[in-house]
Amino acid sequence: MDSSADFVEEATSEIVHDFPHMIRVYKDGTVQRFLGTATVPPGLDSRTGIESKDVTISDHVSARLYLLPNLNEQKKSKIPLLVYFHGGGFCIESAASPTYHNHLNLLASQAGLVVVSVEYRRAPEHPLPAAFDDSWAALQWVQSHAVLAGEEPWLMSHVDFSRVFLGGDSAGATIAHHVGIKAGVEGLVGIRLDGIILVHPFFDGEEVIPGEKKMTTGSALWRLICPESKAGLDDPWINPALDPNLKLMATERLLVMVAEKDFLRARGLLYKETVANSGWQGHLQLVETEGQGHVFHLLNPNTDAAATLLDQLVLFINHHPPLSSACPS
After folding, report:
1. Are strands 159-169 and 114-119 parallel, antiparallel or unpaired?
2. How far apart are CA 150 and CA 152, in angstroms?
3. pLDDT tens digit string along 286-307?
4. Which of 41, 59, 152, 196 has the highest count of CB atoms within 10 angstroms of its CB?
């Protein structure tokens, strides 16, 4: 049964997965989500002047596009593109969430770029690798415009396809990582990945690593997201240290962002070290925010710390010199 019910008044079946305040799954297949269910329509954002619209990519993939009208006319040239993947543990949130809508309006405005925010299929109705497959399909859709086979005017008229970025937060950062690896394995035509941005990436592993604050529900959540996995938390889809293709990531610049109080901080630091030692040939920057927790910039966007993180993203996208806390590979 494929159901994404956001609210269940009266459950008539046994609960098989329960993650309080996040998601609950019943034996009959009914899914009850407690977070990330709110949505907002696209349109003109009065604060930033950014226009947004929703587009269909395939039967099960769509995206929300963001653009500041007349921006490339002001700059006298075409502008970068960010393909963004939202977070939410692969099972909550959406591209239409007010959290992501507001964040990407700001980022598109301040960085001066087009954004394609991907609406991928979520677990448990669509377990992994559905989200990876959908996100790869979205990048292929972008690529079709670079080779003049696409029909979306915002991409055809405004985008510099030599300056394409992948980015995401939490599970979305995990997706950006995997799409970047797949691009390296399979190759891209007509587009260049100028950079990949991983904000507080959602990685894990069976063994506890130094400094790690292990989630008590980690294994159970992974079984919900990827029930067919034979390796558990040591599956390369969630533990990139075990991915033999890590060195093939198809970009020359990688930004990894961690937060001091994030329960995933240790995994982010391990990821940085693993990439640096993998044989990947590129420049890796690590930026850590002191005193903050997981995706703080989305939960509390009106803080100085959130404004600083946004500035750091803009600096990376616009090819400024490495950030002060950068760690070259």
Report:
1. unpaired
2. 6
3. 999 999 999 999 999 999 999 9
4. 196
CB count within 10 Å of CB 21 equals 7
Cα dihedral across residues 274, 277, 283, 287: positive or negative: positive
CA nearest neighbour of 120 among 93, 149, 154 = 93
Q: pTM score, two decimals?
A: 0.93
Residues in CB range of 91: below 8 A, 6 or more apart: 22, 23, 33, 122, 123, 124, 224, 225
Query: What sign for the dihedral angle of Cα 47, 36, 173, 181?
Result: negative
Burial 57-77 (b: 16+ CB within 10 A, else e): beeebbbbbbbbeebbeeeee
Q: Which residue has the tokens 């599970």?
A: 171
Q: Which residues are catalytic?
A: 170, 262, 294
Q: How many CA atoms lie within 13 A of 130 on its CB side?
A: 17
| Phi, psi angle pair for 196, to nearest 5° | -125, 135
**Distances in whole angstroms, Cα of residue 268 to Cα of each of 57, 78, 120, 167, 278:** 31, 33, 23, 15, 15
